[in-house]
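Quick one - inputs below.
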Amino acid sequence: MVDWRLFEPLFDFARRKSLWIVAFCTGCGGIEMPPLMTSRYDLERFGMMPNPAPRMADLFLITGYVTPKTLKRIIITYEMQPDPKYVMAHGSCPLNGGIYWDAYNAIKHLDRYLPVDVIIAGCMPRPEAVMDGINKIMEMIENGTADGWKRYKENYEYYKKNQDELFGEGWREREARRWIPWLMNRKKEE
Amino acid sequence: MREQAIIDGILTEAPYAEGKVRRERRVEFKVPADRIRDFLKLLREKGFELMLQITVVDWPKDGEYELVYQMWSIEHRTHAMVRTRIPRELDKARMPTVRDIYPVAETYERDAHDFFGVYFEGNEKMEMPWILDDTEQGLFPYRKDFDMLAYVKKKYMILDRFDENKDNYVI
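Output:
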C-alpha cells in the first residue's frame, strides 16, 4: 500500500500547471475572458484551458455579479466538479455586492454560499489583474493553502444553512422537478 | 416634411389618437389604452413592421403607468413611440395583448408583468414563470414604491452593514 500523501507536493505542482476552467461566465467578466484566452494575454502558456464540462475542471471562475438564480446553477456546477477544485471570484460584486449593494437580485457575499479561494478586486478587473489573481492561486495551490474544497466539506452545514435561507428548504428538488420534465419534453420535440 | 406626412396619413384613419413629430425620424403618438389594438393594427398596415420594445414607466404621483410601444419602420426609416396610460393599481393595471399583431410582444408583455404587474389579457403565457425567481414573484420590484433596501436587508441578512438613512454609511 502506497501512502499517496507522500506524493501530495508533486501532485500539487502538477495541479498548479494544468488548471482547467469551467466555461461558466456570469456577469460582465465574461467579456474579459476572450482577451485573456487569445494571443494578447494568452492564458494557455500557464496550462489553463476553457473546458466543456465541469466534470473535468479544476478552476471555477466566477466572473462578476451572481444572482440567486445563477447561484443555484453555480452551486450545482461546483458540486459536480471532481475534488481538488478552486474558486476564483472576479471583481467587487461577489465580494460585497459592489455597485449592486442595494439590488434585490444580486447576492452580496459569495463566500457565505461557496468557499472562495481568491478574490480579485476591481470593477471590472483588467486582464492583468486577473492574471495576477491566477498567479496567486497557482502559488496557493503549490503551498497547499487553496483549500476551499476541504472547507466546503468540513463546514458543509454552514454553507447549506446559508443556501437554504436564501433559496428555501429543498430547493434542489424543486429545481429538478421544474426543469427535468421541460428538458425531456424538449428532446421529444426535436 | 416626411414625418408629418406619416402622422397625417395615420391620424385620418385614427381620430382618437394624437400625434406629433419629436425630431427627424422620430414621431410620437398618444392613444387611449382601450384602442391600442386598433391603433397597432393600423400602424402595421401603414408600414411599421417591427416592434422594438414595450417600456413601462411608473408615475406614482399621477397614479398611472405609462406604456410606451416602440415601433420601427424600415419603409419610412422612422421610429414611432406609441404612448398610453393605464391606472397603477395592481387590479386595474390591465391591457389587451398585442401578441397576435406583433408576436415579439409576448416577451415584453411577460417582462412588464414580471417587473411591474401589468396584466395583458389574452396572452396565455402571462402566468408562466419568466425572469424572476419564485421568491420574487408578485413583488414587482421595479415599481417605485417597492422598498428595495428593506427587502435587501431581509433577504441577504446584512442588517449591520447599512444605516437606514444613507447619511451614516457603515461598511
